[in-house]
Amino acid sequence: MSTPGVISHTSPQETLLKHWGYKNFRPLQQEIIQSVLEGNDTLALLPTGGGKSVCYQVPAMMQEGMCIVISPLIALMKDQVTNLRKRGIKAIAIYAGMTRREIDLLLNNCMYGAYKFLYLSPERLASDIVRMRIGKMPVTLLAVDEAHCISQWGYDFRPPYLKIAEIRPLLPKVPVLALTATATHDVKKDICEKLEFKNEKVFQSSFERKNIAYVNRYEENKPHKLVTILERIKGCGIVYVRNRKQTKEVADYLKKNKISADYYHAGLDMAQRSLRQEQWIADETRVMVCTNAFGMGIDKPDVRCVVHLDLPENIEAYYQESGRAGRDGNKSFAVLLYNLSDKAETEKRIKNNFPSLKEVQTVYTALGNFFQVATGAGKGESYEFDILTFCKNYNLENLKTHNALRLLEQQGVIALSDAVFTPPRIKIIVSKEELDKFQIANKDSDPVVKFLLRTHIGLFDELVNVNEREIAKRLKREREDVAKTLELLDRLNLAIYEKLTDKPQLTFLEAREDARYLKLDEDFIKKRKQNFESKLRAMLAYTLNKTRCRSQYVLDYFGETDNYRCGICDVCLERNKISLSDIELEAIEHEIKNQLSQGNNKLDALVRSIHTHSEQKVVDTLRWMLDNGQLTQTDTQFTWND
Fold first, then answer.
1. Listed residue (531, 534, 521, 413) closest to 152, CA to CA
2. pLDDT value of position 609
3. In this structure, what are the phi and psi dihedrals at residue 262, rounded to the nearest 5 degrees?
4. SS3 sequence of 248-295
5. Positions in the chain whose pLDDT score sits under 50
6. Helix or strand holding residue 496 (H, E)
7. What is the DSSP letter of 602?
8. Helix (H, G, I), strand (E, B), or coil: what is residue 110?
9. Do the bridges between strand 332-338 and strand 212-218 make them parallel or antiparallel, or are there none, so unpaired?
10. What is d(CA 326, CA 311) in angstroms, rounded to the nearest whole number?
């Protein structure tokens, strides 16, 4: 086996060109790669679509040994593995829903250097079966994707991330690269502390998207306004809504108004999701109406507009979703439509997102019954999980159940994974001689086995995808016959056979207990609720803001205080209508506030009392301040709105 950590003589640029076909790095990529090669623990903040994966893939390819990548999204892990394999790079992913036997086999292969990249869900990283072997693997780099999930101040906190640092003693000389697209100052600090960074290096590109015009509009009839927007803004678009029902309703409304549209949500089966996604990427469908399940890992560069018909839960989520527009650098639009009902919905969300202990216990009991898991059993077991069927069977409200499950996940009781399509797969685990004996003894199965051996490469080395319908068609048999042969091979311990699945997975991280003894960390929940409320109110404040450049507002939120007006958002366009520089406008605003505090609140008195600028400029500023809610006018008197 090669010595892990030995760096090749190939440069980062040569490695990039050889394996990815690019001559140049994107901003900050090269600096991040160099930091990793120097052995530094590194935090990289790059925008969505900014090329985060290259930052760990290039240094891994430059060194002997393998890279472990922690990611919470199964679909993204599978995409990364597929893309690496297309480039001739050996990679695998281990996640919830895989059998212990399959995981055992893959981990053994990793120990002997069979793979360059091992993708793990954080839940799997914490399991004993992984920890027993990880110290024996030739690991050169540990990459943590979506690193904001480690922080309880982040918008997508996941408790298994907190256990990542526990494996660092098993890999004492291995640097950590943490990657995320969005993080506030507190979250950045939390990431470095929770991952126990040494020789800490932080690289952050600006959150500014100069080509995106942020526009907020008050609108009672949102679907009607959406049609108007899509008629004016040509090109491909994404429309985000809150729930699955809305996706179809809005898509149907657009089609009735002669706009090419389809809908997407996690409740659709994998074949439908894949087809709709492919049609949208190929511009066969112009507009995709979707929940936030759509967009992760999709790098379509020519999205001209992203429209939100409902308020996201926080600015981080809004920034990520709206940032799917304009990745080609051309002008694009991020439009948020709101009305009075959105403010009321905000209060409702704060209440509903944190169900009572009794409600959580009810859902927990129902889970145990649904999967027929006995008390004291189930730890580490994964099950296909359809929340709609679950709620229907136990007469539970969908939204409250979803939030109860999120609380159980945040408390480390269960883990939920996204829906992911896994085709049938098989690996022969006995010798050719033993397989021959099976074929002689099972004449009906013999043609299927012969076909597999003739047409599928690597059956004795790793799990290989099989198309049961295609095999049946070629052999002029029923698909069920093919499946029975594969099941028989598995049952006789001659092969590992994994059936097709496209459902989300639910994993019990702890053995099931009596719900009466289920304890929740009330102090933690209280802090999470305060954090959720704070972020939701920040999102509402951004929505209602009429005086501050929207780009500046977002940049300030992420700690970039040294910034300028974008000049293209709705607030800036209104501001551009008056012939005043920013310095003049701020100076006159300050003078007006001073005069109002002294009781000069009538138009004539205000205009006469400000001698530093012309009367017309003072009047223009007053009009601007009235239009944007900074002042209220009653008769001829002005009042400052705090």
1. 531
2. 81
3. -145, 175
4. HHHHHHHHHCCCCEEEECCCCCHHHHHHHHHHHHCCCCCEEEECCCCC
5. 1-2
6. strand 495-498
7. B
8. helix
9. parallel
10. 21
